[in-house]
C-alpha cells in the first residue's frame, strides 16, 4: 500500500475569543494518498478551512501531528515552515489574492523568486504554468484587467509554478459564476489526472465536490 | 522581476499619497537644512578666526574705548609680534529700514590692518590709493556687488556714534582669501576719524575700540593675555584679552538663545519627518496585511517582509531627503539675498547635506520598525482574514 502524502493524527485546534475558547477541530485523523483529489465539505464554522490551513503549514494544531510528504510540519520553526511551504505547497485562495501591482506573469513568478533558478529558468516555468491554465496571451495584464475566472487561473498558475507536492484550494470557486467555476474545477481535475497532483479542496458547493475522488464531511470539528 | 522592483511599485501604488509624503519630507528636510545652515552662518566668524590673533578690549565692554597710548606698551609684551587697532564706526547708509543698507564699518589703522588680516586681499595699487586718501575706504567685493559700488564712488553715511555727514571714496575692493572670509565689510582710516571728530566735536576723545595682536606662537596666548591684562589692571581702562576665536564666540553667545531655539526647531523637524513617513508606512502596511499573509503563505519569510517594508520606507524617505536637499540650495540663496549683510558668509555645507540625508534615512528606518514587527508577527491566518 502507498504511504499517504498527508497524514493527520489526533489533531485538535481551538481559537480563543476574549475569555472564551472555541473548539474548531476535535481529534482529527486523516490520510490522503498521493494523487488523491480530496474534497472537504461542511457547513460554515465546521473547521474545514482550519484543517486545510494545518495541512498547508500556515497554522499550528494545539494537539496531534500533521505530516506532509514525510515531514511533521508541527515541529518546524517559522522560517523552516516558510521554506517548506515554498517547496511543497501550492495554495489557491477563494479570493485569488493576486498582488495588484504585479502583472499575471510577475504574480506567477513570485514563488519562483524563492527558488534557486536563473531568470531564464523562471521564465520557462512561468510560461509553462500560464500556458497550462490557458492564459499565455494575458501574461502581461495586471489583475484588474482580468476577469474573476482569469484571476483564479493566474492564482492556480502561481500555485503550480514551483511544482509543489500538494495543491490546497480553499473554496476556489466560491467567488465565481457557474461557468468560470466549472472552468476552474476542470483545470484542477486536469492537474490531478494529467499531472498527478494531490489536491485537497475545501468547498461547500456540492457541484464542486462532485469533481473530487473522495469527499469527507466535517461537522462541528469532527470528520464524518 | 526583482525585490527592488516590487518595493518601487509598492511605494508608488498610491501615487498621490506617496508624492505628498515625499513633498512633506522634502519641506521638512529643506527647513532642517536651512536652519542648520543659519546656525553654521552664525558661527562663521568663529570658524574664520585666526589661530594666532588676539583681541584686547575694555573689560566692561568693547563699546568703551581704550587709550591709543596703550599700543606701544602692548607691542612690547613678549610673544606679541604686531599690533593693530580698530573702532566701530557705525553710521547709517540710505534708508535705515532697509536691512541691506546695514553692513559693518570699521575705522582701522591703515598701516597695519591689512597686514594683520591677510585674508582681506587688496590689489597693491588700490591699497596704495587708500593709504594716500585720508577719506578713502576699502570695501568687500560682496558689498560692492550688492550696492554696485565701484572704485571712485563716494559713499555718504550719516554718523550716529560720530554725528554728521561722512563721505568716503571707494579706493579699493578686497576679496576674501578663503570662502569663509566676510566680504561685506568697509574699512576707513582711523586717522581721518580722529581728525574729523577733533574738529567737529572739540574735547571728544577717540580711542581704539579694540586692539588686535598677532602672537608668534599660539601656545603663548594665555601668557600674553595675562601679561596685557596685568598691565592695565588698575588703570581707568582695564582690559580683557582673549583669542580672536573666543572673542567671536562671545558674539555668538549673545545670540545663544536664538541658536538654541533654531537647534531645537531642527530636532522638532526630525520628529515631523518621522511622523509624516511613519503615517504613510503604517497606512500602507495596514492596507497590505492580507498581501503580506499571502506572501508568507507562498514561502516568503519575515526577513523578506522586513526588506519590502524597510525598502519602501527608505525609498520614500530618501527621495524626500534628496528633494529637500536640492530645495535647500535655492532657499538658502534666496535667504542670503534677502538679508545679505546679516549672514555675510552663508552656504550649504557638505556636512549639512550629509546630516539631512542621514536624518531622512534614520527616520525611514525608525518609521518602518513598528509596521515591520506587526507584519512579521501577525499570524498568516489572521492576515488572510483581513479585509483591506
Binned strand content of chain B? 15-25%
Tell the overall outline of chain B.
elongated
Major sheet of chain B: 10 strands, mixed
Q: Return the string of H and E elements of chain B.
A: HHHEHEEHEHEHEEEHEHEHHHHHH
Total count of strands of chain B = 10
Tell the overall outline of chain A.
Answer: globular
* Proportion of residues in helical segments of chain A: 25-40%
Overall strand count of chain A: 10
**Cα gyration radius of chain A (Å):** 17 Å
Give the low-confidence spans of chain B.
none
Structural class by secondary-structure content of chain A:
alpha/beta
* End-to-end separation of chain A: 24 Å
Characterise this structure:
The complex is a heterodimer of chains A (224) and B (388). Chain A contains 7 helices and 10 strands. Chain A has 224 residues and is α/β, with parallel strands linked by helices. Chain B is of the alpha+beta class and 388 residues long. Helix content of chain B is 55%, strand content 15%. Chain B has 15 helices and 10 strands. In chain B, strands 1, 2, 3, 4, 5, 6, 7, 8, 9 and 10 form a 10-stranded mixed beta sheet that branches. The longest helix of chain B has 37 residues. The mean pLDDT of chain B is 91. Chains A and B meet through α1 and α2 of A and α1, α12 and α15 of B.
Task: Give a brief outline of the structure.
The complex is a heterodimer of chains A (224) and B (388). Chain A has 224 residues and is α/β, with parallel strands linked by helices.
Write the layout of secondary structure elements.
The complex is a heterodimer of chains A (224) and B (388).
Chain A: E1 6-17, E2 20-32, E3 37-41, H1 48-56, E4 63-68, E5 71-72, H2 78-88, E6 89-92, H3 104-109, H4 119-132, H5 148-160, E7 166-170, H6 178-195, E8 198-202, H7 206-209, E9 214-219, E10 222-223
Helix pairs in contact in A: 4-5, 5-6
Chain B: H1 3-11, H2 15-42, H3 44-47, E1 53-58, H4 70-75, E2 80-88, E3 105-108, H5 113-116, E4 120-121, H6 124-132, E5 136-140, H7 141-147, E6 154-159, E7 164-176, E8 186-189, H8 190-200, E9 210-215, H9 221-231, E10 239-243, H10 244-254, H11 256-287, H12 289-298, H13 302-338, H14 350-377, H15 380-385
Parallel strand pairs in B: 3-8, 5-7
Antiparallel strand pairs in B: 1-9, 1-10, 2-3, 2-9, 4-7, 5-8, 6-7
